[in-house]
Amino acid sequence: MPHPVARAVGAMLKQHRDQMGWTQAEAVSHVPEMGSVPALSKYETGKQAQDPARVDIFLRACGATDAVREEAARSLQRMQNSPSWANPSDVVSEPLAGLFALEATSKVIRTYQETGVPGMLQTRRHARALMMGVADAQPTEEGRRNYRKLVKRRLEIRLQRQALLDATDGSDDSLMYEAVLSQGVLHAPVGGPAVHCEQLLHLFTLAATRPNIHIRILPWKASHEGVALHTSMMLLKPHENTVGRALYLETRNSSGNLLVDDEEIEKYQASLEDLWTRALSKTESLDLLEEYIKPLLAEFRPKQEDA
Fold this sequence. Notes:
Layout: H1 4-20, H2 24-30, H3 37-45, H4 52-61, H5 66-80, H6 94-103, E1 108-113, H7 124-136, H8 141-162, H9 164-167, E2 176-182, H10 193-209, E3 213-218, H11 220-223, E4 232-237, E5 246-249, E6 257-259, H12 262-278, H13 282-300
Parallel strand pairs: 1-2, 2-3
Antiparallel strand pairs: 1-4, 4-5, 5-6
Helix pairs in contact: 1-3, 1-5, 4-5, 7-8, 10-13
Domain DUF5753: 98-291
Protein name: Helix-turn-helix domain-containing protein
Pfam family, one: DUF5753
């Protein structure tokens, strides 16, 4: 399976070739550095290692702007530097491996979650409680035992994914992360009250202090104004424009689906934008989070003995 970023760069090449009105044969004639039609085809589909110099020559010949050429070069560099955990095929399905690779190279991530906290925003204890719950739900003892063996590795991967939100925080190339959470997420005490309180505090801190993380709550009354196209969806953009977009749809008890077709993605992006407009503002979202946090903190605050 081609690396998702390689597919994105390939889509960029094809887009600019199409803008020139060239067939692949004509493109090779104009840019002999590409070698042959089969070689160009593999570059455009991401099925062959893309040499940065050749990519730049091709884009220059197609009249791409300096910004586009620089973006392609940065994408190839990010792909080369992708951490090893970004494609953990030993413990996750192919769609999830593709998702992790895209996360590691994206500039913008937008997500909507109707029933749970997004993986990149989970605390360690919250994530572990979720994974152990999945392990306990396996139908056989052998299945439960095998799943538990993978929990530690999967937990490490989930926490390493979160480091993407820190690595470039504050720079021009920072990952911008936008999340809309249904109010029902605040009601789900995964792992028990103490773990739930810790998780809500974590969300509050991220939303209040991190300039590249935007968390909005969709209140119940707004949920009734329109239905999301999917209960758990994530849009990933490795570039400023639409080239190379992908959308991941999480499905319960399965590996999920990674979409790369532009027409399909457009529908889900419109849904994400609609949800964002109906969600509470930053201040309102923080106020609602605080409403849920206060009683939980009071529950765990040491009781003062009567004088």
